[in-house]
UniProtKB/TrEMBL annotation:
UniProt name for this protein: ENTP8 diphosphohydrolase
PROSITE patterns for the chain: GDA1_CD39_NTPASE (PS01238)
UniProt signal peptide: 1-18
GO molecular function, one term: UDP phosphatase activity
UniProtKB keywords: ATP-binding, Hydrolase, Membrane, Nucleotide-binding, Signal, Transmembrane, Transmembrane helix
Family affiliation: Belongs to the GDA1/CD39 NTPase family.
Ranges annotated as spanning the membrane: 461-481
Annotated GO biological process: nucleoside diphosphate catabolic process
Amino acid sequence: SAIIGVLVALSIIALVLSLVRVEDVTLPPTVKYGMVFDAGSSHTSLFVYEWDSDKENNTGVVSQTLSCDVQGQGISSYANNPPEAGNSLRECLDEALKVVPAEKQGDVPAYLGATAGMRLLREQNSSAAEQVLAEVAKTMQQYPVAFKGARILTGEEEGAYGWITINYLLDSFTKYSPKAHTWLRPEAASIFGALDLGGASTQITFMPEGSVMSQNEASEFTLYGYSYNIYTHSYLCYGQNEMLKRLAKELIASSPSTQVHHPCYPKGYNETLSLSSFRASPCTDRSDPRLPLRDTKVTLEGRGNASGCRAALRKLFNFSACGQSQDCTFDGVYQPPLRGQFIAFSAFYYNFKFLNLTEGQPLPVVKEAIEGLCTRSWEDLSSSYPKENPKRLPKYCANANYILTLLLDAYKFNETSWNNIFFQMKAGSADVGWTLGYMLNLTNMIPAEAPARVKGHRPSLWAAAVTFIILTLVLGLAALLL
């Protein structure tokens, strides 16, 4: 009877310990994934992002898990063979599935956003553009992800999402404070502007001092519980590759000979092209009475003249359309006064990286370096940079002078505000571009999950309860044996 009494006492103690101080315990939030294809004019890249399922003020705190470059040209180059546009994505999709756990793949939202290359193809041949997007969608739907659509972004969306990416990566929207154990909103003065230069278009985006006067260039976003009104404009046909085509066409049209001097190409470099090549893009397809109708071959002969190059490039802009207006860039496009610091990425960065001009050099140093590059002969350049792509190398003089023309003459940066431009392609471990901004904006629409909650004990109470249960069992067995 003594043993039975002890057993009863131990059982009661174990029961009490197992019931007292029971608390709700929040389990760590589950990880969600998303993937976005950036289908640019010259190439396509896939980015995989992840974020915790509980969100900060309704926006996911997102990090980049994978970036994968698709082999070949941009999807617009498959206009004559649309199925290949879809097939080109398979290798990167396979890579993406390796980083996403199998049990989560069915919930991964997958998007493809096409930019200026596809905008141009749609202008030129809308049915071909639709077929390319249909084939891309068909391929993505064959994978165990939640396909959400393949579409052509507007230039303004591209600019605005690039702006979101930059400010997110640089902690302009929200920043974790270890001291306060919470996310804080930095001062508005730390918001950066975005300068993006692609193959077929260029974008400028920033938060102006007051409200944006023209609704065509105004965008509004709500991120981390705050609203942002920004100015953004995209210039189609003013991307780097289309600029080079337009420049060549203008030089040829202004020359009486089929041997045409090209001020931006290095001395000793020649490029032969056919006039029919201008018909491949809406940017150069317009008829020009100065050009012969027949399909003539023309040779562009490099002259390596930096000032002549800048002068030729200025002719591609209609600055007179602005009249006396200060709030105007070119072609009559409204732009409020510049404000704050800017991140220049994509081709802005790649061209200046080649020239070692991404360390915040002042404008006079930049101009001197570009002039020095332009005076070098083709023989000198090709022997000095044997690993550089031979198609890209002769075009750095034109590209660098175009960047100066765009930033100084069009966007109205000057020698002082030049120091507010930072040329970079990465921030932290993530790439700068529009896809992360796109994903962030979309996570506003993806429902947040409340973290799972379970009943739990303090470890000391749990250990004591287990000890008494074990003692009860031991004594019970002892009683049976006796």
